[in-house]
Amino acid sequence: MSSTYGTLFKISTFGESHGPAIGVVIDGCPAGLTFDTDFIQHDLDRRKPGQSRITTQRREADEFEVLSGVFDGKTQGTPIALLIRNTDQRSKDYGHIAEQFRPSHADYTYQTKYGSRDYRGGGRSSARETAARVAAGAVAKLLLAQQGVQVQAYVSQVGTMKLEKAYADLNLALAEENPVRCPDPEMAERMFQYIDETRKQGDSIGGIVDCVVTGVPVGWGEPVFDKLHAELGKAMLSINAVKGFEYGSGFAGAGLYGSQHNDEFYTDEQGRVRTKTNQSGGIQGGISNGEDIYFRTAFKPVATIMQDQDSVDIHGQPVTVSGKGRHDPCVVPRAVPIVEAMAALVLVDMYLRNKVSQIDRQEAGIL
Amino acid sequence: MSSTYGTLFKISTFGESHGPAIGVVIDGCPAGLTFDTDFIQHDLDRRKPGQSRITTQRREADEFEVLSGVFDGKTQGTPIALLIRNTDQRSKDYGHIAEQFRPSHADYTYQTKYGSRDYRGGGRSSARETAARVAAGAVAKLLLAQQGVQVQAYVSQVGTMKLEKAYADLNLALAEENPVRCPDPEMAERMFQYIDETRKQGDSIGGIVDCVVTGVPVGWGEPVFDKLHAELGKAMLSINAVKGFEYGSGFAGAGLYGSQHNDEFYTDEQGRVRTKTNQSGGIQGGISNGEDIYFRTAFKPVATIMQDQDSVDIHGQPVTVSGKGRHDPCVVPRAVPIVEAMAALVLVDMYLRNKVSQIDRQEAGIL
Amino acid sequence: MSSTYGTLFKISTFGESHGPAIGVVIDGCPAGLTFDTDFIQHDLDRRKPGQSRITTQRREADEFEVLSGVFDGKTQGTPIALLIRNTDQRSKDYGHIAEQFRPSHADYTYQTKYGSRDYRGGGRSSARETAARVAAGAVAKLLLAQQGVQVQAYVSQVGTMKLEKAYADLNLALAEENPVRCPDPEMAERMFQYIDETRKQGDSIGGIVDCVVTGVPVGWGEPVFDKLHAELGKAMLSINAVKGFEYGSGFAGAGLYGSQHNDEFYTDEQGRVRTKTNQSGGIQGGISNGEDIYFRTAFKPVATIMQDQDSVDIHGQPVTVSGKGRHDPCVVPRAVPIVEAMAALVLVDMYLRNKVSQIDRQEAGIL
Amino acid sequence: MSSTYGTLFKISTFGESHGPAIGVVIDGCPAGLTFDTDFIQHDLDRRKPGQSRITTQRREADEFEVLSGVFDGKTQGTPIALLIRNTDQRSKDYGHIAEQFRPSHADYTYQTKYGSRDYRGGGRSSARETAARVAAGAVAKLLLAQQGVQVQAYVSQVGTMKLEKAYADLNLALAEENPVRCPDPEMAERMFQYIDETRKQGDSIGGIVDCVVTGVPVGWGEPVFDKLHAELGKAMLSINAVKGFEYGSGFAGAGLYGSQHNDEFYTDEQGRVRTKTNQSGGIQGGISNGEDIYFRTAFKPVATIMQDQDSVDIHGQPVTVSGKGRHDPCVVPRAVPIVEAMAALVLVDMYLRNKVSQIDRQEAGIL
User: Fold this and answer.
1) Interface confidence (ipTM) of the complex
2) Which structural domain range is residue A73 located in?
3) Residue D293 belongs to a domain with what CATH number?
4) Which of A306, B202, D48, D111 has the most neighbouring CB atoms within 10 Å?
């Protein structure tokens, strides 16, 4: 088990879906940051269940308590512990799966790896854990905002329904105007119907979340193994239901010639080195190059469906698993703030790590 | 800079493309492993330059020296240091780029992040560093082999030319029979011509490497952040030129319904719990489920091309970068052993970490 | 700030002395351990304030809540979060020091490092944080007990009053029979009077805690940097007010000849390799050798005294700091369970790390 | 096995006493540092064997090769690999101990933990490994020097012969003027005779090394677990033959009253907050307070003596171990640069970590 992420801005999450609480401890947040609780709560609200009829009807207020690390409204450099009580845990919904392995869930692997499992709502493997990430990610966003960095994700695909426009041709602010979180209003409406139809059929559907990060200066990211995109990839792949990650040209880039793919440099009117194109997705050699950072994350359909499925129980005997409980027919709308949170956590860690890349020339008397 | 990977089987690589040497220190290899130098050299030979006319003509023997950690042919539990001298460093090939930023290389980002850079052959950002990974990965493979685990990668796509067969329908052993490392001989021949044409045009082309890992028992992988596929993703994305990673159903999975995507469980004739399909790619909840692990890694076209390109120099002035040096027109054939090495490093770390997942029931007197 | 300790059994503590709560997240506790809440509470009770008139009169029940990681009375391999609410926070006692730096406290260094500080009761620098360590350490003790390992600390010195007997000549069980936690009843009584006199004078006094660990098999400890005694030393020195650490012969060993100091080996009647003496303190080359592990930790006098002291305020102006609040005149009685907790945390981490020292010979088909 | 130390300035050492080479990889050295090879060689020379008749007569030039990380005389932010070939390995001296456990050496514990060992000269457990630390520590010193920080150690005790003067009453520069490295010339001469007598008797003797660090600003050190003195303690205890560590008042502080021990603050003529006394050893709450950092490290007598000793062999049978090989009768003179190196490594890590303690107020537009 490793529930810890980060080198300098380090988070540890805890909590099961139907236990008393979930939460996160942030160790390494610099002191002096104004701790904007409304901002954090707003991001939690964007992730919380029950936002519309295409999200799970579980009701969780997802209000958080600050247990430590903040004094007089500022971070103190000490660990920040944030606690979210679980309130609407209908554990009885899960009695029937205590001895069953739900297809494409983590029941079987947890049971085998650990010898037991908290089967209620998936326990630790539930995406409920991501609320803790969103809270921590919101703190990271506050730090990034001070550096002029903004992280914005949106839904670009639901099932086979794709938004064919590039992010630069969209008004990303519109993503938050609809329950699907697609910045194209017409497409958002079609996606909503698609998801709702899927829900009515007792089925689920996958999708893709795109993410754009603006304002990152040149120099964030740590080669060789902790390349910026490698950490972003790990962070995204650590989110429940994620099956793939690509940045910049991504998989499509494999089909191009170098002469098509290379991003030529030029100097803009402000004297800043820029690239004419951005196949690199804002990252070269694992280090940000000052262009927009752009990446995409693919989510599989939610494993819980309201249909009978073949499976086995913990004794290996065949059983029929029938869908119960309250679940999302499509995770991508609620995944948007989770993608943003994980991106923010990666970026803030890289921001801090970059501070020690060069010697202190001023202090050293060199400049 | 982070040139260290792994939690228990920890590697640190070092070395620049045109410095005296590259190498790796492995800290955490268990004692008692028979150290098969021929096996390690064989993997280095699979990666080394000059294998055919579609790879770079740089000549490096890539022979390694064991500096520590091995005694009487066995690992001792102490750090294993492996050294590979650079021999064919035509540094003069690079004098012309000392002050230029090559498009889609790491020249600009390294220069800005660190204030200087070893420009010869890309210095630390060169894929030459991956030879050290291959050496370490070969040691990991030796440990995995004892557990019955095999890692096999192959080329499934070059440019837009795709091998449409599933891995299960291929004889993967054939991949090593041709210079492209594609297990379909006919497709391999076509890919070879494609790459060679590209080379003749002074251009480069991308591609995709698929990887299959067999024999992994249930239980490897550490949720929440260090999910097996998240670590595999990070490891692949840390390889030079990689733009995307997907496992199991991958990006295509986003387009499916849950009822299509879920892998139903059954018990096979040996009493083993299996899944009927493998959209999960052998991983559920971040933990191996006993099925084959399957993932795909997309590589962009090599940034160095034998054509003139617009760029800027370190003073921001416009320059024309012309292609020189010896480079691969397509990296995927040589990337195959690198993908395998990184996969082996991830898996061996997870294998070791899994050893402490449950209490020692026997010692504890429980069983 | 680093509030995280451990490689495999990793703890993160949080909380300020006068904030809402303190607590700890344990990431990496193996699954299947019976979670004995009474045992944990008992250790917290041994540390809690108000035990006798020679400890601080602050009243804290120090009852803990299990937020996660335990199901059906067993650990699940998932993070265990333990929460202790602060109840008796007389923050008004501290208003007077909001702008003063108390001598030999961390007020000045925290203020300078972080730009601000939670001055109430020392905030994060308060020894109240150690309650979280004791809770985590008790979980570690439960794991160790399964391996037959016992950790027992006791007070061997208060001020200049020293217990001259070796631990082997004492009945350590008697340590818990008196409020000083000295296993020699007569000495305990004298120490009690000494501390009480010191308290009446408004002063404080230092002391030494000895610790003995029995039952550790050969092989725990990780050379080169994470030697068992190096980790024990770091762990002890991380406890508030600690000034020194020694193991085995310690500082006195510096005065001996090799011919006096060396521990000769012999084979005992059970065929076990033993040493005739134990100057090594049970550790050779950083690895346990099967003998009792023995070390000593020196604590300075508590910095808070009920006397006026010269100091400066946050503006650098001279002030007189007068003693207020409720404080221990001597920390060593309450430090005993803290020393044990930190020792247990080190040992359990080494126990787990040792599991991967050698290849799996059985699985590998070698044995 | 953990041969890695450091959070941001991370070192990995490798190599056995009688293998081909030893060395170190430094991952995380900031770019732009002038790499002074003479300075590094000078520190290696201070540690190397054969300096006088009171050190081992093994002859090692201990010249190092820079394999990576330095270009045009400057560090590049990439891993710095330093290699030292072993030249004078008289392995045949050790054939007789292949099957014997030397008393108070690591032979028995390594053999048991790892199932085998490189017995030649102690293999990995040999203090020869510390040459790699000294090389890395010298790089750390170069960085510290830019910040005005100096690390100076010296011998304060040999056997029972103690230098009773405080460091402030000594001219520490004199320590390097004599082979014992004691800054009091008269005492140095007496210590030299003492050690030489011990050598003639075929015996060994312990000693104590004091260390003073000047110029450290307020704020270095990371509470809670990575307190500056806790990391210094771990670093010292990780050195071969170390039995104890204390800082500031140390063990003697346990015997004092708070009213004697507290360091009162005042503001000096330059407006700097200072303490009247320095029982704190320059560290309060785990963070440097701007005063001199002062600590002491106790070394046991070298385990190898030129006398017959009882022991057992690897089959548990009684044997007589007779002293052979070339060994130091007293390690402390050569330990001086090792203590300094480890201190420098701790301090440079804390220097870098401190850079992220507070938000970037200037960049954030707050100041």
Assistant:
1) 0.97
2) 4-129+148-354
3) 3.60.150.10
4) D48
